[in-house]
Amino acid sequence: MVAAEILGNLTNFIIQTISNSGYLGIFLLMVAESALIPIPSEVIMPFSGYLVSTGKFNVILVIIAGSIGNLVGALIAYFVGSYLGRGFVLKYGKFVLLRKSHLELAESYFKKYGDRSTFISRLLPAIRTYVSLPAGVAKMNLKKFAVFTLIGSIIWNTTLTYIGVKLGEEWDSIRKYSDYFDAVVVIVVIVAIIMHTWKKRKSAPSVNDP
After folding, report:
1. Exposed, middle or buried, 200 (CB in 10 Å: 0-12/13-18/19+)?
2. What pLDDT digit, counting tens, does each position of 45-90 carry?
3. From CA 192, how far away is CA 120, in angstroms rounded?
4. Residue 181 contacts residue 41 (beta carbons within 8 Å)
5. CA 106 to chain CA mean position, Å
6. Are the CB atoms for 189 and 120 separated by under 8 Å?
């Protein structure tokens, strides 16, 4: 009940912010989401998509505002990791509900997939917000980080905005099916990774080739 009440209040805050501030509100909320503030893009973008369906917003500007906001927030988290380090994150992360397990999950994912993780993670609900920290700690190439983050964010935000447009006034029903939506996204990403790895291995020259 408490969690539901918090989510309800947060949803109302998001609705009021976007309704009052327009594209700037979308931008600022998505900055916060990528800068480790627990504000769900699964509410921000579908609601913005609903406003597109009413004619209040332009769909391209919504996606741009959300994606640039994601990039700015991700850069903030990147520089926190790069300049303040892992110890600072672990010490003060609790104030933005960042647990040690969150960081460790993002770290293990970053170590496994390297630079590509900053793109792939933007499509994974469990770690999309946190991977900027280990990327910063590892001092990943900033240009690559920015490009991969922006591309992944555009895909994610386009998907959520499209859902909001299609659902219209029922946009908030996405919360009822968010677990299913998250699961589908994860499965699609895993399949894409497997196919990419398989094609890469298939195209690699065999050790027996002359």
Report:
1. exposed
2. 999 999 999 999 999 999 999 999 999 999 998 998 888 877 777 7
3. 10
4. no
5. 12
6. yes
